[in-house]
Records
---
Amino acid sequence: AQRKADIREALPAVLQEATAYQVIPVPDGFAARKGVRTLIPQLVLLDYGLPGMDGLECLDRFRASKGVEQTSVILMSAALPKVSSHVLAWSSLFEAIRDGHFAYLDQTHP
């Protein structure tokens, strides 16, 4: 949990400092969806493990919204989702690639 909080705080700060982009962090998938519809950003960094609505569901809803079909999305995860306490949900990774998401960024490696 602390690692996620560290990433959630550090990533926007680094991106804001290193790029000319406006960085707008949001707390969950519902806020991300609302922000994308309102702002129509050029790029969305989307965490698979969003509270309330996971990143894949959020991405599917983005893609169904008018005006944001061309928005680029990078799907990230601090850990692949778990089906049970010991089994990684590799099917989610393959599902994302099959659905046209060409890369999956796994944050588990420092």
---
Amino acid sequence: YGVQQNGVQQGAIVAFNPLDASPVASVSVGARPTDLDVSPDGAELAVICSAAPAAIWIIDLATLAVRETIPLAAFDNWDVNVTTARVAFGPGGVLYYTDAAWAPALRVLR
């Protein structure tokens, strides 16, 4: 999977064929996608989008459809053009993310 960005505009996640690296599908997500992570069971992909409104998009990898969008009420962003926002799945379906503040804060969802 790869992140397609267009500045602070809407972005996309691109799925690639692992045998020849050709793109096979894309899924539109929010503005300025900056990081992604596959769930431990391989069923979901979490994508953090750091431009307003900041959110984490959950994509069903079996259907390549957006399953859920989680707004991030606690999200600081010191410069949307050089964001450091990250997302990761943890044990038991917990989602971790760091915001894009000058001194990023680790936050926990779910």
---
Amino acid sequence: IEDVEATFTKNDMKWRLNKMNTYEHLRSLAEINRENYPPGTRIMLVSMGNDPRPIENNTRGTVRVVDDIGTIHCDFDNGRKLGMIPGEDSFRKLTAEELSEEQELITLKM
């Protein structure tokens, strides 16, 4: 019985260490995403992963927030709201040229 208890304790400790490592990994990814995609950052969705109601490719949006596991929540120009999952969804920041073009269009509408 003592051996079984010792084995359980070792396995439980491994599980806890793995869980902690996963948590630390996600926390680290979230911090990186927060630095790279602060609120207000303009992005373009290149393509979505396996989503039953995908947003059209090349749709632009604005980052609202990055949550604690690194999901990048965006408000898209077509009115949809979605959390982008790095590695699952393909997206990028708008270039300086694309941002300039957007500003020109806004100015022309005024």
---
Amino acid sequence: ENVNKLQQGLRDRGFNIGTTNTPVTPVYMESGMSDALNLVWDLRENYHIFCSIVMYPVIPKGQLILRLIPTAVHTDQDINETLDAFSAVREKLEKGLYPKEIPDVFGALM
């Protein structure tokens, strides 16, 4: 049920999730490396959403896949917050609001 809610919610908001038929939900976007890393950092630090990221050299340059895995313990509120967060980061990406520098993830952890 949560898988369907998340996947349909992403489709309804115009996200490309391909033709997945598993709980692993890919979200396809276009992005350079620094934007992609800043977007994932933003999702984790500001929206408390963890997702795996796939980018060059695994896929062509300029493309980005974010992978989400909804589970039975996620609530409707979790799903709605995820959908809102993805809309927000997409808007930031499209407006070019992410810094062009790659985030210092190691410095923040120390």
